[in-house]
Specification:
- The protein has 348 residues and is mainly β.
- It has a single domain (28-340), classed as AttH-like domain (AttH-like fold, Beta Barrel), CATH 2.40.370.10.
- The chain has strands at residues 40-51, 56-66, 83-91, 99-106, 112-114, 120-123, 126-130, 135-140, 144-151, 157-158, 164-166, 174-191, 194-211, 217-227, 232-240, 245-253, 259-262, 267-276, 283-292, 295-301, 307-310, 316-327, 330-340.
- Strands 1, 2, 3, 4, 5, 6, 7, 8, 9, 10, 11, 12 and 13 form a 13-stranded antiparallel beta sheet that branches.
- Strand 8 (135-140) and strand 9 form a beta hairpin.
- The model is unreliable at 5-13 (pLDDT under 50).
Length: 348
């Protein structure tokens, strides 16, 4: 799902932005680009990689776009119509703790931009953009960098009702949302100055909205899993302030590319084990059982410490981690899990 939390002073009235309504047909590649008439948008890639020695790494990159005001009326080029942010991370069990970076900039002047009509978003020299065969992303942090090619092997997977994804019972709590599972990844990751050639599989989400979380909601749990048989599962739950399930949904694509969606009562999240961050004190359910219909998977983290402290850009602390999906003791897939609202309520 991706994450963008903003301080209340940055928020504008949602009614002044375009609403998310059912029945809108998503079109490709046009809808892969920016939608500035909506308040919030993100492009989100997660994946598992292996280097030449067979060592596993996880990676994540998310570009966010937010519009503080629908139309300020200020003609100045310095007026911040869009704010762009990037979060990126590498999970390395040999390091034992998430390596991550964050950056923010206002759009314009060639320094940061999110283009409409195609995926092309950048801040300085970090980017995620469409190319002839798929997508490319390049990111550099203080102690890591990656330069990766992401090639689709399946068509877009529309989430919810043909891309209209409800986030609660209120009509306005919704997003437009599609995914690209089973992206084939190639390229290189640099850690502590050492370049490692890598390959693997990734998951790409693109989502945009003007009002996401209801006032009753605390945060969410989300997972996107590339299953070994070629199928793919996306599942999430929005948590109420007492951590019970406020809303839930899931979408399963089977190996024949048939799509099945699951209603809130068909989706369950059951924590199996928790981990407490020594830095923030947040308690995360890092091992979880997820049920969507008759499919039940245990999600086991690559490592426990995959907490991302992004307070200087979005005000949020969250857990974003590579994990293995199991049925019993048998591994059946790999993906990522995102846990938000465990440090404090997520403000969007």
């Amino acid at each position: 799902m991706g994450l963008l939390a903003l301080a209340p002073g940055v928020r504008a009235a949602q009614r002044d932005f375009a609403p998310v309504v059912p029945g809108r047909e998503l079109r490709f590649p046009q809808d892969e680009g920016s939608h500035p008439e909506f308040r919030t948008e993100w492009w989100y890639v997660t994946g598992w990689l292996e280097d030449a020695s067979g060592a596993a790494l996880g990676f994540q990159v998310t570009f966010f776009r937010t519009r503080p005001n629908p139309d300020s009326g200020n003609p100045s080029r310095f007026d911040p119509r869009d704010i762009l942010l990037v979060h990126a991370a590498v999970s390395d069990p040999a390091h034992g703790r998430l390596r991550h970076m964050q950056r923010a900039a206002r759009a314009g002047f060639g320094l940061a931009e999110a283009l409409s009509g195609r995926t092309d978003v950048h801040i300085d020299d970090g980017y995620l953009r469409a190319n002839e065969s798929g997508y490319a992303t390049r990111i550099a942090g203080d102690d890591f960098a990656f330069d990766l090619q992401l090639d689709p092997t399946q068509p877009p997977l529309l989430q919810g009702d043909a891309g209209f994804s409800r986030k609660g019972p209120r009509p306005e709590s919704a997003s437009y949302y599609y995914s690209l599972p089973h992206l084939r990844v190639s390229g290189q990751v640099t850690v502590d100055g050492k370049v490692r050639k890598v390959g693997g599989l990734a998951w790409f989400d693109h989502e945009w909205s003007s009002e996401y979380l209801a006032p009753e909601a605390l945060g969410w749990d989300w997972t996107g899993i590339n299953l070994d048989d070629g199928s793919a599962l996306m599942a999430f739950r929005i948590r109420a302030r007492d951590h019970s399930t406020y809303w839930a949904a899931a979408t399963l694509r089977d190996p024949q590319l048939r799509r099945v969606t699951f209603a809130p009562h068909e989706v369950e999240w059951t924590p199996l084990r928790t981990w407490r961050s020594p830095r923030t004190g947040a308690l995360y359910p890092v091992a979880t059982r997820v049920r969507a219909g008759s499919l039940e998977l245990s999600l086991v983290p690559m490592m426990d410490d995959q907490e991302n402290d992004a307070r200087i850009t979005t005000g949020a602390v969250y857990w974003e981690g590579a994990m293995t999906a199991r049925i019993g003791e048998r591994a059946v897939g790999r993906g990522y899990m995102e846990l938000t609202g465990y440090n404090r309520r997520l403000e969007m």
